[in-house]
Amino acid sequence: MTQTSSTHEYLSERQQNILAFLNRYIGQHGYPPSIREIGDAAGISSTSVVSYNLDRLEEKGYIDREPDVSRGLRLTSDADAYVDAGRDAVIQIPLLGRIVAGAPIPVPESDFSLMGDDTIELTRDLLGDPENLYALQVEGNSMIDALVHDGDVVVMRHQRRVENGEMAAVWLKDSGEVTLKRFYHEGGRVRLQPANPTMGPIYVDDPRMVEVQGKVVMVIRQLH
Asked: For position 3, what pLDDT does the model report?
């Protein structure tokens, strides 16, 4: 029997992400994505895991599928209601402290612990999956050409690896400093590049002395 929208609370985070992706994809293309495309969007490499989650969504009444039809999938009215409700949902992200966008200065490790109950609130549709997100307030102007100014707040996704050119929070182990820069791994060294023509890059000859704390996924501008 098809379940109703009262089953929303039983969707896993992964199933919520798949449902949101299906809604976006069908809205943009007019037809559903392939199993492989769903897996890529949800970070799932196994097609059987994708199929398992689609089975759960079908059981809960959010999708209908025709097994013998390529891309034979459609969203139900319950899915539309669920996505609309989730789009307006407010999520809270912990504000963990400060990060220097300038010449790095010593920053106590405690700045990366939660400062009281400080949080920022954003709607889910701005960020998608809220897992592993935190926020830091920026000090300095080394990233002004990347539209990051002193006093702005950057929303970070906690991860240990970033691609060359991505803006990251980087911990410099040997000096006990943290800084916000574009990250480049250049063979045997790391280059931390500011986005300010008046400032030069920071070079770290031993990549083991650099630890990525997270990648910038959003900048919240403060009016000055």
From this structure: 35
Predicted TM-score (pTM) of the model is 0.56
Return phi, psi of residue 89, to 5°: -70, 135
Q: Residue 60 half-sphere exposure, CB side, CA atoms within 13 Å?
A: 21
**What domains lie within the chain, and their CATH numbers?**
5-87 (1.10.10.10), 90-220 (2.10.109.10)
Is 170 within 8 Å of 210 (Cβ atoms)?
A: yes
Q: Which of 32, 13, 11 is nearest to 3 (CA)?
A: 11
Catalytic-residue membership of 181:
yes
Catalytic residue among 45, 110, 113, 142: 142
The region, left, alpha or beta by phi > 0 then psi within -120 to 50, assigned to residue 61 is left
Concerning whether 46 is annotated as a catalytic residue, the answer is no
Q: How far from each other are the two terminal CA atoms of the chain, in whole angstroms?
A: 56
What is the tens place of the pLDDT at every residue in 152-209? 999 998 888 999 999 999 999 888 888 999 999 998 999 999 999 999 999 999 999 9
